[in-house]
Every structure is written in C-alpha cells, then in structure tokens.
Amino acid sequence: MHGRITRLQCISAHRRVYTQRNDGYSDQHMYRAKITGTGSCVPERVLTNADFETMVDTSDEWITARTGIKERHVAAVGESSSTFALRAAENALAMAGCDAGELDRIIVATVTPDTPTPSVGCILQDRLGAVKAASFDISAGCTGFLYALSLGDSLIRSGMCEKILVIGVETLSKITDYQDRTTCVLFGDGAGSVVLERSEGDRGILSTHLYSDGSYGKLLYVPGGGSAMPASHASVDGRAHYLKMDGNRVFKIAVKSLEEAALKALEHNGVTGDDIDLLVPHQANDRIIQAIAKRLNLPPEKVFVNIHKYGNTSSASVPIALDEANRQNRIRENGLILLDAFGSGFTWGSALIRW
Ligand code: ACO
Q1: Are 168 and 283 in contact (CB under 8 A)?
Q2: Measured from the CB, is residue 284 less than 6 Å from ligand 1?
Q3: Ligand 1 centroid to 51 CA: how many Å?
Q4: For the segment 268-279, what is each residue's pLDDT rounded down to a tens digit?
C-alpha cells in the first residue's frame, strides 16, 4: 500500500477535511464572501420617453407616472451582452485590485447571452485572461444577479473558491418588441459586476434567500428561440422572439414577493428596517420600490433608486445600482445593505450584506 493512495483513503481524507471545517463553522472562523470591488457599464445610446412618443401610442406623462422611467440606454448594432459585461468586469476588478488571473470562477447572470453557446462567462474568461477560472452563465430573470451572488457566496463559504467575479448583464433591447407599448418603454441594457473574495472577518454577505415558482412562467416569457419553438419564418413573423408580459398581474405578485424576501432577510439576521443603511432593490417600477420601502419603514434616503436613468435592466439592475451607490459613497463601511429582486420564472430573492 506504500506510495499508493487508495480510493477509501481519499474518501476518508476528504471526510477529515469536511469534519475539520464543520467543527470550525463557528461565527468566529467561518469564511465569508466579501465584495471588494463593484463595476458597471451601460451603452452610450439613450432612448428618452420623448423618443417613444414617436414610436408607439404613449406619453412621457404616462411612462413617468406609471413607472418612474425617464430614459434608458440601449445597445447599438454590433454591441452585445459581452460588450458591457466586459467593461463592468474590468471596472470591478480594478476597484478590487484583483488580477483576472486570480479568479476561480466567473458567474454571469443573463437571459440575453450573445449566443446560446458559448456562454458569456466563457467569452469573458477569454477576453479577461482569467486563466484558471471555470466560467458559466445562469438564467433566473431579473433575480439572476442574486442567484449568481448566492452561488458565489456558497462556493466561498465552502472553502472551494477564494475569488469570484459575479456579473449581471442584459441587452433586453434585442428581445423587446418596439411595437408593443406595454413592454417596450420599460426595458434597458447594461451590466453590473462585483468581485467576491474570501474573508475571515464579520463583514461580507450575511445571508441570501432565493425562491422560485414556475407556475407563473407564462406571465413573463419569450415563447420563441428555444427548443420548444426554434426560430422559423413563422416564429419571426409571429413576433415570438420578443418578451411578453402581463404587467398588471406581474406587478401585484412582484410587490408581495419582494416584501417576503426582504422580510425574510431581516428576520433571519435578527434585524429590523431601522438597522438597514441602504436598500438596493431591483429597478422594475418606482411604484413597486416605494411599496417595499413603505413596508420596511425606510425613509427615501435609505432607498437607492436609479430607474429614471436606466429603466428595467433585468439581471443588471441590482449590480448597476449597487455600483452607483458605492461610487456615490452611499455605502459606509460596516453598513447593512439589503438587496432585493424579482423576475421571470417567477424567481425572487434577497441578500443582506455587512459592507
Ligand atoms: N403608454 C400608455 N398607455 C399604456 C402603456 C404605455 N406605454 N402601456 C400600457 N398602457 C395602457 C394599457 O393599455 C391600459 O389601457 P386600458 O386601461 O385602456 O386597457 C392602461 O395603460 C393600464 O395598463 P396596466 O397594464 O393596467 O398598467 P399598470 O399600472 O399595471 O402599469 C406596468 C403597467 C408599468 C407594466 C406595471 O404593471 C409593471 O411595472 N409591472 C411589473 C413589471 C415587473 O416588475 N416585471 C418583473 C421583472 S421584468 C423581467 O424579469 C424581465
């Protein structure tokens, strides 16, 4: 047996490692995932509410009153999700002082990848020169960034990874029907990113809570383009490759679900709305954001809102808002930051971070 490790020995060696780690899972020794850098990027091209008045039967007054949106950034021809994800990633890595070669994972949340395959994660892995990073995409609608963040947090807590790049990116303009006034005024493009690093202190991601209910799938979906309805002349003529949404029904469920996820984060960590320094919610509709703020008893200065500039950027909305809040010094060291999102699937979730 000398010089040869048997399968049994490997298993027991693993068990020892896990046992030691489990013994060390006191608050004092547990690894945490800490956000050490944030970044974002939006396209240069802007569509204002006035632009939409010339495209569909709508008005600046209706859009502003019903959604809070004034303008949104949209990709130009030739730009795709990886265009913005790359710049957001570079900004986050620069802030963290992290070389791409140190990354263990690149996790990208998107429903609008450049192509069905390869993933945006792999495109970034190549462009960033992240030589040792396993890279992939996940799809969870507008909650995608929180799903990716939660996964990154788990990989760091488990001890499996030390440095992870998490990105939320969308070019929703590519699947938006600019003849449908009920959806086209809502969406914008962009990317946001964070660098997660292993930390042994008290600061970092304290908890994440994720939920899904697929029975609501058809209230917000793209019928065509997947294996159920591959692209054909009929699917294109039928406008099946565009996002369809029953906005009014989505609205009501979104308010309830966002509230549930936010309250769960507070309860789980034994804190109240008063302890929260900043709520950074998904930016889908200002009326939804204000309803959540009211439920958590948060004054306006504790709620980050940028929907007027970007519209709903789906997976990118929370990390773009987080990066703006960070760069505007709205986040203090040790402050408690609550992230909250809801999206197609349906999916929803929250994260509580001690910054
Ligand atoms: N301009 C003018 N009128 C409009 C427009 C428009 N752009 N869009 C709809 N209307 C009309 C409707 O046709 C309707 O007219 P009718 O009464 O004559 O039938 C009227 O306005 C009211 O329509 P509602 O859909 O009831 O309006 P509502 O107040 O619900 O606002 C909105 C619509 C903004 C879409 C809202 O429902 C919403 O924000 N929903 C939630 C969106 C969301 O959270 N999505 C989740 C994430 S998205 C993702 O995962 C990609």
Answers
A1: no
A2: yes
A3: 18
A4: 999 999 999 999
